[in-house]
Amino acid sequence: MATIKSFEQIEAWQLSRELVKDLYIIFDEQKLKTQFELMSQIKRAALSIMNNIAEGYGRYSNGDFIRFLDYSSASASEVKSMLYVMEDLQFITRDDANTYRARIDVIQSKVLRLIKYLKEHRSKKE
Q: Is 54 exposed, middle or buried, given 0-12, 13-18 or 19+ CB atoms closer than 10 A?
């Protein structure tokens, strides 16, 4: 794995950033505007995916970074779950929900690979 000099270089963070932007765009649709609680929760969870990657990177120890990456993965699962609610309530189509869930799967896979790498190289930063 190449040396990462900033959290912006982490592919999982980059993909999370794109996901947040796209989710915010679909939430601006008319039928979602009145769903304040649902929209607030899913937006916060989506933001948490990328922000926990950044915050963990900023901790400067592999142990802390791993912990925040775990939070990031958990937030991704939360967004994924909430997409089922949005689909069930017909706020988004099944195809759109599946597309977002597949994107989340990619992000989680990258986060988990980074966790595995950091665990293998734990003594490096601790």
A: middle
Beta carbons of 47 and 27 less than 8 angstroms apart:
no
Is residue 54 over pLDDT 60?
A: yes
Position with higher pLDDT, 1 vs 45 = 45
| DSSP class of 85 | H
Query: How many C-beta atoms surround the C-beta of residue 55 within 10 A?
Result: 18
Class of domain 10-124: mainly alpha
Task: Characterize 17-49 residue by residue with b for buried, 16 or more Cβ atoms within 10 angstroms of its Cβ, and e for exposed.
Answer: bebbeebeeebeeeebeebeebbeebbebbbbb
Global pTM reads: 0.88
Q: Which of 3-12, 34-43, 97-106 has the highest mean pLDDT?
A: 97-106
